[in-house]
Amino acid sequence: MASTRSAWDEIVIGSGMGGMVAAAALSRLGHRVLLLEQYESLGGQTHNFSRDGFRWTAGIHYLAAMGPDQREKAILDWLTDTPIELAPMGTVYDTLHIGDAPPIQLSRPTEAQKLDLKEHFPDEGAAIEGWFQAIQAGRKALETIIRARSLPVAVGAVSKWWRRAAIRRWCERTTAEVTSELTDNPELAAAFSAQWGTFGGRPGTASFAFHASVIGSYLDSGGFYPAGGGSTIAEHLLATIRAQGGEAHAGVTVEALRMENGRVVGVTTADGEAIAADKVISNIGARETVDRLLPEGHGQQAWVDEIRALGSNICHFSLFLGFCGDIEAAGATKSNHWLYPTGETDAVWTDVSNNVPPAMFVSFASLKDPAYDPGPDRKHTGEIIAWADWSTVARWAAIPPGERGEDYHDFKSQVEAALFAQFETYFPRLAELVVFREVATPLATAAITGHTKGAFYGLDVTPKRIMSDALRMKTPIKGLYLSGQDVVSPGIPGALWGGLLCAVSIDPKMAVHLGG
Ligand SMILES: Cc1cc2nc3c(=O)[nH]c(=O)nc-3n(C[C@H](O)[C@H](O)[C@H](O)COP(=O)(O)OP(=O)(O)OC[C@H]3O[C@@H](n4cnc5c(N)ncnc54)[C@H](O)[C@@H]3O)c2cc1C
Hints:
The chain is an alpha/beta fold.
């Protein structure tokens, strides 16, 4: 790596949304930032990849809170010289298929969604009203906790104490507890909790505040998709970093933090290069930071233990699909689809020999992207995802790729067949247009993103995580900061806020640019 200076204001480790946003925000304030990424391309889970003339984005199917009048969009515009083009998905952004019941379409804005649900469940008007009130209250409660993490400890503690009743009610209870208080209609309860895969929090164990915050953020304006796919986000944000004299390098693994006199003073890369900085921001995940980067003698064992006590989020299998032909005529839409073949929504795939994954998600990303050119063959892309448990692949985790043997090959074939069979069941006419398929397992996620146990959403979203003081952006180790989804919530908007609030913790001048 050819870095043109020996010392930086900040080094950011990991080029996901949170790392890029923290780096771009600090660059806007005049800091010179070095961004280091272990993977071969920059952008973390926002990166695009191609096969046989088809293109996918690794970790974006829709973006919330990106309406023209929304705060997150205004902040993104401030971070970039030219705006990132975000295309609306239209009125309906999610379609729920729960057991054999007729599909339920989820539309924006809130009032439209309420009306649709009330038509679907005519006897449940009060429960539906109560649900939307709970979502607003849950979002506010999470906001209190997150803001407190970026404030000085005493100020944050007072703001949490002031709102302690709301925090107890919405953060410390699970989605299932809140849902069961509102309705005993199992189909409605399933509809309330069906989008849990947007942040990985199963209804029985997730803090309701995460559920409210993530699914609630789609209600005002629906979903948006970046024109050109997720990589356009990196192109825009990296330009801001470089314009200020910063640099961003892919293919550079940070091996350790360098500490002197109890303070982080830089990093050492896997190539043995020592790079100095006033401050270091880790965007690789809180657990990954304490497990992989901290040197001996850091002096903050209680903080490390508290992070290690938080579990990992779910992992997933993907089947990437390439189509040739008129996929809209065959039934594809911009709306995503949530598939629950048995009607049970609180489930993940634990046993691949049971070839019906209990919880899946389908998206046709190329239809959402106005910059996508399908060409004369009308080439389009889709993806079917099954939410899963790491135990499905754990036995091969310690074996390098290429050496995993015939049984792993058979396992992948079994996964591919199971996912494609489900795709054929729900979308028979589209299945006939498939000309390309490739399966990805949680082992690929672990290798590409570095996330422990393939947990692409980071830490588990339990009440324990929400209440943990260990996830502050400014860590107890001097000079070390955390950014990204683990300090706020899973998803691109969560990672964006993780980057912004990390920047505020380093340079309070950032606060005036947050609005609201
Ligand atoms: C299949 C899938 C679908 C998704 N769909 C959506 C969606 O529709 N909408 C949405 O909002 N979110 C979605 N997400 C989630 C979203 O992509 C993530 O929540 C978000 O990108 C996390 O951003 P981050 O910056 O916190 O971390 P990441 O993007 O995970 O970035 C961490 C980076 O750190 C790097 N790194 C790790 N260790 C090191 C090291 N030692 N040295 C240098 N670099 C290192 C990694 O390579 C990685 O690039 C999806 C994710 C997946 C996988």
